[in-house]
Amino acid sequence: MSKTLQTVWIIDDDEIYKYGFRKYISIKKICSNVFDFNNGREAINYLKDPLNITHLPDIIFLDIDMPILDGWGFVNEFSELKSQIEKPITLLMVTSSLNYNDIVRARSYPEVSDYIVKPINVSEFSAAFNFGFEKKIA
Asked: Which pLDDT value is given to residue 86?
C-alpha cells in the first residue's frame, strides 16, 4: 500500500486486538503514528487538550464495550466536540457485537462512517483504511 495516513487511533480495551492492529499497520506501512486508548474517556481528554492538536487522528477505530466511557459515550462527546475540530476525522465502530440494535444505533450517528464486526480480516482492514483515505482527500 503506497498511501499512508498520518495518525490512526485505536480506542479499545483489548490488548491482543491492539497488538495485532499495530502489527498490521507496521507491516503494511499504512501510518506513521498510531495512538491507542483503553477507553473513550482517555481519548476524549486527549482530544480536548489543545497541546495535542498536531496528533489528531485521520481515522479512529472505536470499540463499543469498554470501561469508564464506552463507545456510545465517546460518540456522544465526540459529536459535541466535532465542530471545534478543524481536521476531518473518519470514525469507524469496530466491535464483536452482532446485535442488530447496535448496528442501527451506530448508523444513526452521522459521525460514524461504518460498523465493522470483529474479528477483522485483511480485506476489511484494507477497505477501512481506503475509506479513511477517501474521506481525507474529499
From this structure: 82
What's the domain range around 60? 6-119
| 56 vs 51: CA distance, rounded Å | 10
Per the listing, cell 466536540 goes with: 81
Residue 134 lies in a domain: no
Provide the CATH number for the domain around residue 42: 3.40.50.2300
User: What are the start-end ranges of the E strands in the chain?
Assistant: 5-11, 31-37, 59-62, 90-95, 112-117
pLDDT given at position 61: 93
Span 59-101, pLDDT tens digits: 999 999 999 999 999 999 999 998 888 888 889 998 888 888 9
Within a domain: residue 132? no
The three-point CA angle 19-21-28 to 5° equals 120
What is the Cα–Cα distance from 39 to 11, expressed in whole angstroms? 6
Tally of structural domains, the chain? 1
